[in-house]
Design goal:
Order of helices and strands of chain A: EEEEEEEEEEE
Number of helices of chain B: 0
Number of helices of chain A: 0
Strand content of chain B: over 45%
Structural class of chain A: mainly beta
Distance between the termini of chain B: 36 Å
Largest sheet of chain B: 7 strands, mixed
Strand content of chain A: over 45%
Shape of chain A: globular
Radius of gyration of chain A: 14 Å
Oligomer: heterodimer
Helix content of chain B: under 10%
Helix content of chain A: under 10%
Number of strands of chain A: 11
Chain lengths: 121, 107
């Protein structure tokens, strides 16, 4: 059974870099694409980006200048780095397995439990 | 960016009811639409992709349909475990965008 577990600091200072890791168990990251999504407290969902282990990441343009998503196949981990954070980046961050059905339908299939990251001075 | 507008924002329903949630896209997105269920304090659960294809393990009480740029999620015979917030999401264009959510509450 595939499981995704997000990890990282729960508190990040304003203007610093948010760094999170998603550890995949029960599968190899080379089999699927992997996405990051976030959800500010009490609000809706926002797509951050996705990556295939051997390809270039695809980022949300509104966040692109501050983002780095990477994959470590040897550890079956996906990482997210977001620099120059502000209070508006406070959110629950989820990683999710992304499947591509018939080469056209992108489906967020399995989600991690999420990790709350608070940005504060 | 493509705007996804859900209606209603919330609804009250009783156990056994049939519930319909609507999601309208600001432009044509073909059938590149997904639905998610999220219970309070939990991660979203994927229900549907391709507007009407159920993910493995999702009961057939959930169904999705499309009419032009309007999409519908229908839940038949509402059960206590179905009370949650539901989101639609388009993946026709980047950035992928979500609706604002529809909260289904117990009447």
């Amino acid at each position: 059974q595939v499981q995704l577990q997000e990890s990282g600091p729960g508190l990040v200072k304003t203007s610093e870099t948010l760094s999170l890791t998603c550890t995949v168990s029960g599968d190899s990251i080379s089999t699927f694409y992997w996405a990051w999504i976030r959800q500010p407290p009490g609000k809706g969902l926002e797509w951050i980006g996705y990556i295939y282990y051997s390809g270039r990441p695809n980022y949300n343009p509104s966040l692109k200048s501050r983002l780095t998503i990477s994959a470590d196949r040897s550890r079956d981990q996906i990482s997210l780095k977001m620099n120059t954070v502000t209070a508006t980046d406070t959110a629950v961050y989820y990683c999710a397995r992304l499947n591509r059905y018939n080469w056209v339908h992108w489906a967020l299939e399995i989600w991690g439990q999420g990790i709350l990251v608070t940005v504060s001075s | 960016d493509i705007q996804m507008t859900q209606s209603p924002s919330s609804l009250s329903a009783s156990v056994g009811d049939r519930v319909t949630i609507t999601c309208r896209a600001s432009q044509d997105i073909d059938n590149y639409l997904a639905w998610f269920q999220q219970k309070k304090g939990r991660a979203p659960r994927s229900l549907i992709f391709g507007a009407s294809s159920l993910h493995s393990g999702v009961p057939s009480k959930f169904s999705g349909s499309r009419s032009g740029t309007q999409f519908t999620l229908t839940i038949t015979s509402l059960q206590p475990e179905d009370f949650a917030t539901y989101y639609c999401q388009q993946y026709y264009n980047y950035p992928w965008t979500f609706g604002q959510g529809t909260k289904v509450e117990i009447k």
